[in-house]
Queue: 4 jobs
Job 1
Amino acid sequence: MQVSSLLTLAPARRAALPFAAAFAVALAGCAVTPTRGPSTSNATPELSTQTMHAYHGRFSVRYVDQNGQTRNAYGNFDWQQQGDTVTLQLLNPFGQTLAIITSSPASATLEVPNKQPVTADNVTELMRRTLGFSLPIEGLRYWLESSPAPTSHAKTITDPQQSSRLKEIDQEGWTIEYLAYADAPATGVKRLDLTRAAPPLAIKLVLDR
């Protein structure tokens, strides 16, 4: 499957995706300063104090596994964020739960159907231990709200056609491209792509909210 086929439902024979492939998308705010070019900034402090965010949508991911093979996966996701705690449920295209990841500043837990939960001090350690790579769940807490994370410097580029919206964020080795925003009266990001060069990883997200 090509990553670009995000919006195409898979036939039944593709439903049995390997768990590691689907889990690869277990992913790791809106105030922006209008500019006409690249800038460096951090997220506004107000964003981190917001207590609840929920996102529902579809994902497509391309990554290189521990054997050096390129893998593709896709499905649906449900993201629930309360304060500093994120609960991410991954589902296959038929709605069956593949994994549930809970991440907080104190610990992280990974649950797989019919298996005992696995815990670690943080979500990065947990994913490295179980999959051999990690994903930017902490960054996504802010990137999903069209804002750089407050933990490090970032380069931002605004949309030349609408300066109140971000077109791109470059932060912590990731490039986040905002391809679509919801039409009024809805608000927020509709589609975004995330890419990382090393180790290579490409994620496409469509938010149905």
Note: The first helix runs from residue 19 to 23.
Job 2
Amino acid sequence: MPIKIAPSILSSDFADLKSELKKLEVAGADLVHIDVMDGNFVDNITIGAPVVSSLRKNSKLFFDVHLMVIHPEKHIERFVQSGADNITVHAEATYHLDALISRIKSFGKKASVALNPATPIYMIENVLEIVDMVLIMTVNPGYGGQKLIPYTLKKIERLANFREKEGLTFEIEVDGGINEDTIVDCVKAGADVIVAGSYVFDSGDVSKAVEKLKSKVRGLR
């Protein structure tokens, strides 16, 4: 299957998100990655469900909503109603991961789990049969423009090997420090979905940046 590119609007112009989404549609982005930060789980604060709802009215892109919040179970229904297609929760942010994933899926949405760089894969082994995607953070979450942490490539590889061994079907997403070089490393390690923020939106040409990322990994699978 082709590698999917999911530009992150964290690095876009928040004063003109409607236009930024249109750029992604024209560019052929496969998903749009929407980072929701509460100032508690991570230091930064971004957007909430009302903004996602407004964006939904202006885009048909697949909304990949990444909740970097404490007690994510309190927010699920609001993001379901806002138009999220996939909701990702952090394993580190909830005590009842199985119940939370099942609740997201009960609304007919895709459910995914994220791991911070230092969190081991074994923490989520028991839910890998029910998740649609696993997001491996390749930087510490909260801010864009960081460099990929090298040891996270081994995590991607271990997760991909586990998936193959167990015959599972979840996708592996990576987020953090992606550029035209690191995307190759991530895909070779086993990643299927690539989140890229600064590389895409700081490039000056969103379409060219997305196409360059796709071209770098075309044929690797």
Note: The beta strands are 4-7, 32-37, 63-68, 86-90, 110-115, 133-137, 171-175, 193-196.
Job 3
Amino acid sequence: MPEDIPGIHHVTAIASDPQRNFEFYTETLGLRLVKQSINQDDVSVYHLFYADHEGTPGTSMTFFPYTDARRGQVGAGQANAVSFLVPDGSIDYWRGRLEDAGAEPDEPRDRFGDTVLPFTDPDGLPLELVARTDAPPANLPESQVPHAHAIRGFFGVTLSLTSSDRTGDLLKAMGYRQTDRDGTRKRYEADGELGYVVDVLEDPQARRGIPGAGTVHHVAFRVTEDEQPAWRDLLIDRDLRPTEVIDRKWFKSVYAREHGTVLFEYATAEPGYTVDEDLDSLGERLVLPEWFEDRREEIEAGLPELSP
């Protein structure tokens, strides 16, 4: 068996307007655009990566912004909420900041002893801020949000499933352990510092999710390159159909739909976002993997305007 997974590597969602997406995640949420690239499976679409200052695994929220995307339907077979970790005592600050930005946060609520602030991004993607006393130090020196309240990275995700037993078994094989339950919500936790929580909501009558703007495309978990083949073998042994290892330039990936049809990715931490850009200039220009460079002129002509 490979070593236990410490948590989430990144989460990728679908958006519509790339400029609006950029402004919300950098100006409102205070994250840094650490990579401006393309969807390698559809080069007419940006792939925008937001994270802490260094693009640390466990902090990276990424988007495919399709300018003509219809609003999706959040539902079963998807991650139906993405949760960010903030320090204890930050919820009032964030409530005011989100209200000022027109994000219309819901009332804070208690979940397993934590204060949770739900809200949505401009495309309707369900997001949450979870306040914890064990939040690590901020790593956003250029953030517009004070360090005392800054997002530290992921807390976790919530999966919506019509049946959760086989997904729970897979999470346990990945190193997550069930730590709590409240009605139809089960909590699984890994031993990492960021992105270590997966909540599972089980509802046999839940409506199916429909991909589109405002929905999560996939959830990626952190693995090492040495152990990535073993994770692929484990998926095969569990009657799943993983892809071959795919080189994404900044990490290598294996994808598989788990038994509840949520798309999981197993992504390496290396080589990271600084492999082709200096740390201080991350995200300032369109970066293409070298296998797309000979198409740069064509690709740039087909992308919508974006002013980071």
Note: The radius of gyration is 18 Å.
Job 4
Amino acid sequence: MLKIAYRKEYAHPLPENHRFPMIKYELLPEQLIYEGTVTESSFFSPNLLSEEDILAVHTNEYWQKLKNLTLSRKEERRTGFPLSAALIERERIINQGTIDAANFALEYGVAMNIAGGTHHAFTDRGEGFCLLNDIAIAAQYLLKNAKVSKILVVDLDVHQGNGTAEIFRDNPDVFTFSMHGKGNYPMHKERSDLDIEMEDKTDDKTYLTVLRENLPKLIDDEQPDFIFFQSGVDVLATDKLGRLGMTINGCKERDKIVFEHCHLNEIPVVASMGGGYSEKIAHIIEAHANTYRLAQDIYF
């Protein structure tokens, strides 16, 4: 059974002017159940992430600022969210969801988090709607508990996974691969283990060719025993923040490539949702839903 982390707090407690496109966190589970891709039994409710797991990745100074709501106005603006205790609770729930999904992936081969993909969170700061880095926290959890020995991060959000790159810069047990828009946020890029920059208006054929050329080679070279997939759909041509030129079908094929290679090589994979900011919510939901449909079809 496909296991998916979700709680109603994923869409709350954001103020009204931040609700779109965050409403996708409510609509996506409803769509997946309505169409019969999954049932309610597929969803599980994560609890609060422990401080121990937070501090395995983030600095104590930064965590205390989050915990005590003492970020400076500049630091708060950088995150893109108004700081609140409820927001910090939301972040802890989402991050625990990725850890729980990782454990389910070890059992079933694949698992998902309706939220997450918070790849702009650094060891000591948050950026770009990311406060705690769920991929990094879950990866560190797996390594610390000797559940895996080598992790590959496949970050296909349109924005570089700069926080993840910084966190694992000197860690040979985690290979960070980010395929992102060259001219997009963040303007100052960190150095991942492999960065591939795509030009504005990159179409399906060009993007998918590059992915097909690189992902199998990375798996062969690095021999990971676990993969974290940041499956942002802001690569779409309709995305307000994306600047690439991909279609919904092209984005679906991207996800299919990732899941099929994980399945073929028997590498457990967790997919975190990542970004998606198209003008029409229907485009966002359809593109994200394809990720879950493919996981269900390929694995179950």
Note: The chain is about 45% helix and 10% strand.
